[in-house]
Amino acid sequence: MSTMKEAAYEGEVTWLGLVPEGIASDRIHAEPRPALDFDMGGARGEHHYGETRASCVRVTMLYAKGTRIRNVRQVSILAQEDLDTIAERMGLDRFDPAWLGASIVLRGIPDLSHVPPSSRLQSTSGLTLTVDMENLPCVLPGREIEREHPGFGKAFKPAAAGRRGVTAWVEHPGSLSRGDRMRLFVPTQPPWSP
What we know:
The protein has helices at 80-90, 139-148, 156-160, and strands spanning 4-18, 31-33, 35-39, 42-43, 52-54, 68-70, 75-79, 104-107, 120-123, 128-134, 166-172, 174-177, 181-187. It is mostly beta strands and 194 residues long. It is globular.
């Protein structure tokens, strides 16, 4: 019995980016790419690359900061529709996904930021990404925005609430190019209701 079902949605890849290795710790600016190759550690040369990572403030209730844990934040995936809404809420003509350190931007999957954890996104190359969870807004994108649009950085967090996309990790390697499509599969498990 399958634990996944194919959703009625697939997304078109509208943008790909890579945060270069060695970038300053207070930066997340991604460089646009026409294509990316993913192995089990993510996209090679990416700042978030690796099968493990040092734990951070997101999991301090579980681990001391710096503890080696599974890297479920290899990839940052956003919806084009959400970027358009964030731009509108902030009063910008457009919102550059590079400011968010985005890996992938998809068009066509509604409410992408809230797809269930453990959902899968699969491309025609076989690349399969497992969604960890919603990527909550943080202060780093505001700093990136402020560098290019002074006075707009503080508007990011409220404008992006519930629209920051998801983080994911590579379940099966493959390649991805702009214009490719990714099919969404969701877990069959019912929502938890204690």
